[in-house]
Amino acid sequence: MSAETSPLDDKNEVTLVGKVSATPQVRELPSGDSIVSVRVIVKRKGARPRPNSPTIDTIDCGAWTGRAKKTLERFQPGDVVEVTGALRRRFQRIDGGAISRYEVEVSGAKRLLKAA
């Protein structure tokens, strides 16, 4: 291990494999940049901790770079995909104040299985 790395170094890496829930959305930002967003449904594995607990997670994913945006735009609802990136906390202003949410900032993505 080099002097520059340590097993205690911070790491923010996410890999999701799941189904696309809906058609990807393209949003234009006030800066003129655009973002492509998609939601990925991921099944929870393992025993349910209590009755009626959720069996899936729906995770927001957003792409800011050209290649990742083009890939996400081609996804269709029901496609099984792999998305890699980093978890980011985003803040937004709404009428009642500010809210925060988490999303995966996509650095790479690929379709594993096309929807039927």
Automatic annotation (TrEMBL):
<dbReference type="InterPro" id="IPR012340">
    <property type="entry name" value="NA-bd_OB-fold"/>
</dbReference>
<dbReference type="Pfam" id="PF00436">
    <property type="entry name" value="SSB"/>
</dbReference>
<keyword id="KW-0238">DNA-binding</keyword>
<protein>
    <submittedName>
        <fullName>Single-stranded DNA-binding protein</fullName>
    </submittedName>
</protein>
<dbReference type="GO" id="GO:0003677">
    <property type="term" value="F:DNA binding"/>
</dbReference>
<dbReference type="InterPro" id="IPR000424">
    <property type="entry name" value="Primosome_PriB/ssb"/>
</dbReference>
